[in-house]
Hints:
This protein has 106 residues and is of the alpha+beta class. Helix content is 40%, strand content 13%.
Amino acid sequence: KDIPDTISQAHGAAARATQFFHQGEVIKEPLVAEVDHEVCSGCRLCEAVCAFEALRFDPRRRSMSVLEAACKGCGACAAACPSGAIALRHYRFEQMLPWAEGMLGG
């Protein structure tokens, strides 16, 4: 990226971050990703696929952490995780499989 693009992206991120302060409250999504730190290898693949920039590498734990206020619960990170360390809170793979099969017509 060039400098103007970087500055523009930073302004956008700052604007998104400050919108929470103006609302007076933060509405959290009921579905957010959770990381099993015992299983996470820290490969950062989930970070690469997250459209909401809701995952960060935690060097202290040597695994990924979820920024719950940014997570929209889409599940892209869970689908991309090669070690199966990420799941959506209150949902597990076994519960989602029949739903996904139904959506795909299988």
